[in-house]
Amino acid sequence: MAGVIARRARKQRVFRWTVLTVLGVFFVLPLIAMVEFSTRDSTTWPALVDWPELSERYPALAEGITSSLSQAALTALLMLFLLVPTAVWVRLRLPRLRRVIEFLCLLPLTIPAIVLVVGLAPVYAWVTYFFGGSSLTLVFAYTILVLPYAYRAIDAGLSAIDVRTLAEAARSLGAGWGTVMWRVVLPNIRSAVLSAAFLTVALVLGEFTIASLLNRTNLQVAINFLGKSSATMSVAVSLTALLLAFVLLLLLSLLGGRRRSATAVAPAAPAAPAASVASKEPAA
Amino acid sequence: MAEVVAAVPQRVAKRPRLRGITALLGTVPFFAYVTIFLIIPTLVVVLGAFAGNEGGVSLDSVKALGNSYILDAFGRSIALSAISALVGAVLGALLAYALVTAKPDGVLRRVVTAAAGVLAQFGGVTLAFAFLATIGLSGFVTVWLQDTFSINLYENGVWLFELPGLTLVYTYFQIPLMVIVFLPALDGIRPQWREATESLGGTTWQYWTRVAGPLLAPAFLGSALLLFANSFSAYATAAALVSQGSPLVPLQIRGALTSEVLLGQQNVGKAMALGMVVVVSVVMTLYTLLQKRTSKWLG
């Protein structure tokens, strides 16, 4: 019996390393190729880290970078202002509405971004009328796009704590609803809020569909545009954007891992960022 | 007792109802926002698909879906999604199994899962450029193969910008997604089941075909469906790679949105969008059903 088990373990080890090597090559090769490709022209990387030079040589790219960063920050803020108070409020006062909220938040998963654009076009005619054609107006659409992921992160965070007891305790000590939200609930779901914000930033930085079809600019639109004139530069920016997303999502998974080990009682605690991103259209 | 119960709520009945209404006020911002930016766009698509060009109800746009160029686009989209989902599912399942046989809390498993989480997100323009740098006409691998082995990747034409190329590129995010969604199911397989098979005289082949295979089938099928929906709704990668023609449905919709629309065809884009929603909804419903079965068997 011991021999059988040892033989199986050896077979499994061989199988494991074969699969890992073959797929590892497939996954690492494009990354290496990006490094090689972007270093063919030695002026590419120095230009990328030199902001004044970059905005002079590639004004569209610089504009794309700044709009993407502001879009990411604003979307994260809007998402939190919209979602956290509503989720807490529904848990405390309207538990029957929870299903409805959950359904609405997860709805964007079944509506591809390209379909959403078709429906958003007339809505954005009004948005342009009221707010102008700035690329920052994309924040409205992006908040809908990130709703499923943000909702799941925040809902998991709220499930891990006893919101009702905390709120009742605070209220009985004379706290107003504002204090309950800001000083009692929010600090308790800090890491859930943080992961929702991280996911939002990662998704917004990778968004292309809506921006390009509503004729607004962001990082991905700029990269795509740049690809037509300067392939090296666009690959270098792609690599940078990818590394940034890498760091963000790795931080997120570390955050999730730490939280899970810290609060072993929370079963629904973020099933890793990975799981909450699972059914997502890849950075569409 | 019944009287008491009935009497007590009567006295306070008014206040809870009033409080219920004020409580509802707290959700107004959320519902207003979602109505404007999610419900209305959805209705625009659904109603627009059935609207006539001069108002009123009409089936013209939906009937236009029967045009051969639209049917072809749907066919190609479905074929691309099915093949990339199948390849992604098989390779992803193999990778997930390789991870399960490793130490549960080992470095290998943690690193690969984290990387899969990131790579499943990796798509769109960035991914298109990554592959252009790899197997584009002057890409790293293309040049290397040409110089070292004088193999020309594109002897029979440039396939990177067509369906075979798109399938390869899509696999890059499908495999990691499969790892993420299939791993929990594989973790649900208990070693006792294998031991039980063996103590009853079963071989490895019998274990996989009679025990583990059937148990994992719903999870595998469900994950494959999720992968299908994932690539079916992907737009950015294809948009960045394909610059000529509109072989896929999302690219056809782009054409309907951006170009001068033919007279009498204003709502065809909406009809195609509705078609996409129908396909994705059917696939996702099946996925949810299979997911329920999976959690019952392997939960």
What does this structure look like?
The complex is a heterodimer of chains A (284) and B (299). Chain A has 284 residues and is an all-alpha fold. Chain A has helices at residues 2-38, 44-49, 51-57, 59-93, 98-106, 113-131, 138-159, 163-172, 177-188, 190-205, 209-213, 219-227, 231-262, 272-277. Chain A folds into 2 domains: 1-38; 43-277, MetI-like fold (Orthogonal Bundle), CATH 1.10.3720.10. Chain A contains 14 helices and no strands. In chain A, helix 10 runs antiparallel to helix 13. Residues 261-284 of chain A have low confidence and may be disordered. In chain B, helix 3 (28-49) packs across helix 14 (268-298). Residues 1-13 of chain B have low confidence and may be disordered. Chains A and B meet through helix 1, helix 4, helix 6, helix 7 and helix 11 of A and helix 2, helix 3, helix 5, helix 6 and helix 7 of B.
Furnish the topology, listing elements before pairings.
The complex is a heterodimer of chains A (284) and B (299).
Chain A: H1 2-38, H2 44-49, H3 51-57, H4 59-93, H5 98-106, H6 113-131, H7 138-159, H8 163-172, H9 177-188, H10 190-205, H11 209-213, H12 219-227, H13 231-262, H14 272-277
Helix pairs in contact in A: 1-13, 3-4, 4-7, 4-10, 4-12, 7-10, 8-9, 10-13, 12-13
Chain B: H1 2-12, H2 14-25, H3 28-49, H4 60-64, H5 68-101, H6 107-119, H7 124-135, H8 140-149, H9 163-187, H10 191-199, H11 204-232, H12 236-241, H13 249-258, H14 268-298
Helix pairs in contact in B: 3-14, 5-9, 5-11, 6-9, 9-11, 10-11, 11-14, 13-14
